[in-house]
Amino acid sequence: MIRFSDRLQALPGYPLAEIPSIKRRLIEAGMDVIDLGAGDNDTPPPDTVLAAMHEALKQPALSKYGFQQGLMGYRQAISRWVERRFGIRFDPASETLPLLGSKEGLSHLPVAVVNQGDVVLVPEPGYQAYIGGAILSGAVPHICPLRAERKFLLELDDVPADVLKRAKLVFANYPNNPTAAVANTEYLTRLVNNCRKHGILLAYDNAYCELTYDGYRAPSIFEIPGARDVAIEFFSLSKSYSMTGWRIGFAVGRSELIGALTRVKSYVDTGPWLAIQQAAVAVLDNSDALVAPVRAELERRRDAGVAALNANGIACEAPHAAMYLWVPLPAGIASAPFARRVLEETGVVLLPGSGFGPAGEGYFRIALTVGAPRLEEAARRIASVLAVTPRDELAAAR
Ligand code: MLT
């Protein structure tokens, strides 16, 4: 009988793990499913990337191992993009790293920087790759609750001094998943200064930096003076260019940090497919034109989704970034049974706030993955379940 590791058993349930099988069952039973679960837009990848991929497929050299070095042309495109977008220069060879999506880099990073028993500071609600990476590396995750009244900002000043002393790494992510909160320069300066003061590495997840609305511009953490000493930043092509399944992203940072992550990855993967790296060059070099329609469509969906929820009696504010609505539930309704009921009874896939950690309780997340009419239909269905849900569920679930 195999006894699984304590680390495996310590992993919380992944919020999206069960959804594909439930969805299949419902579709097979004839239900009209609206999937607002994973942040996976129904928009296609740009023609530019498909054309570049067609060309790449014809080059046998791109079917070989990429190893961690990958395609130098991709590293150069990363460096060009970061410089054009944020005005910061990273050396392609030593300060950029191709990733199999930013999730992979984020969850492998702790292996490179923590020892058994070190503390990793994890935002909650948060992208579950952070806590997963911390647990799998043998670290002790310390939960930093993100509260609406603090604008969902992770504040190191709130962490007890003895925990801060043992902390090696903190994950931060703005524009934020799941809350869609954004951070201004003043906050990011405080965060960087605190990381410098306490000698904590800042893993800054900037996967949603291109999906911003209402004139908001998401900065790079490296726009903050001193960040190079303490930060590594992660980017993804998944959401901005509808390329979730391609698994392509990258990290930038000073060479010691990039080198440490490279070393870990040398043992667990052999780099993204070179053909995809080649196609990704075409994306990064044309990023402004390619992201504009995705951003415009998400903004339309955001407006339609928020309006439809409000019209159906569900209060929700319009976020300035990302591709999610983080919707408060009325007091007393537990998010997991509610999301389950919405799915089973109406076919709408939502993610319960508690799927992003217990501090996410009291909310559900809608991903703006479908067009306005389907979001409006989804809002009606969600409201119909809410209308008949008893308010004492949360107490019963505890
Ligand atoms: C999401 O939050 O929907 C993610 O980006 C998908 C995942 O990697 O879990």
State which percent range the strand residues make up. 5-15%
Shape: globular
Task: List the ions, cofactors and other small molecules found in this model.
Answer: D-malate
Class based on secondary structure composition and strand pairing: alpha/beta
What does the main sheet amount to? 7 strands, mixed
Q: How much helical structure, as a percent, in the residues?
A: 40-55%
Rg calc: 21 Å
Low-confidence stretches: none
CATH level-four homologous superfamily name of the largest domain: Type I PLP-dependent aspartate aminotransferase-like (Major domain)
- What is the typical, i.e. mean, pLDDT? 96
CATH class group of the largest domain:
Alpha Beta
Fold-level CATH name of the largest domain: Aspartate Aminotransferase, domain 2
> Strands of the biggest beta sheet: in what spatial order?
2-8-7-6-5-3-4
Pattern of helices and strands: HHEHHHEHEHEHEHEHEEHHHEHEEEHH
Number of separate domains: 2
Strand tally: 12
In short:
Helices cover 44% and strands 14% of the residues.
How is this structure best described in words?
With about 400 residues, this protein is of the alpha/beta class. The protein has 2 domains: about 5-30 and about 290-395, Aspartate Aminotransferase, domain 1; about 45-290, 3-Layer(aba) Sandwich (Aspartate Aminotransferase, domain 2), CATH 3.40.640.10. It contains 16 helices and 12 strands. The strands form 3 sheets. It has a 7-stranded mixed β-sheet with strand order 2-8-7-6-5-3-4, with helices on both faces. The two termini are about 35 Å apart. The relative contact order is 0.17. The structure holds D-malate.
